[in-house]
Amino acid sequence: xxxxxxxxxxxxxxxxxxxxxxxxxxxxxxxxxxxxSELARGEAEPYCSDTELFSFLGKRKGLLDGVVISGGEPCxxxxxxYLISAVKDLGFSVxxxxxxxxxxxxxxxxxxxxxxxxxxxxxNSLEKYGLTTGIENxxxxxxKESINLLINGGTDYxxxxxVVQGLHTREDFVRIGGLIKGxxxxxxxxxxxxxxxxxxTLKSPDRSEMEEYLSxxxxxxxxxxxxxx
Length: 229
Known about the structure:
8-stranded mixed β-sheet, TIM Barrel, two-stranded antiparallel ribbon, 8 helices, alpha/beta
């Protein structure tokens, strides 16, 4: 199995844990604000093999608590279950980043007890998923199924939205709040433009916008927070 990126230490990506982040290639979305567009489009260069990754992790036992599996969209990788099982066998807890388009994969992994934490992106209100993900007729039914799976399941989780000026409005967060009503954790993250972002015209919302959106979400998700501001 080929690994396309490795952040050897992060104190931010896995709540409450020191972790390494492993990046897999490929995605079934085309978000115009994606920070990992080379990975998503399959244009990234290979970083190492799974054997080399496991060797690295073996040397980090006692120093790292967990491993984050990110992308791209990890759930489209046919070797994902093998990778997570191997990481778990090394004694690490595993967090998975996902766009929520693959509830069947999430169910299989959680049923097997392979995941300790799931971070699912809520791209926008369901009515604007096509605009936000760059996909015609996206399967929002799969998104709702994944949301229900996380809220009603036994695996720790969070929902998160990267907020982009022009793509998100107050009404979107009214709808998102209703969609994930009662969620355990929900974070609004401010978009920040980078060279890797496909659409260079996109802008960050200001703090007052973020706080307005947060206040709407908190009507249904009282624990919602801003992240990275």
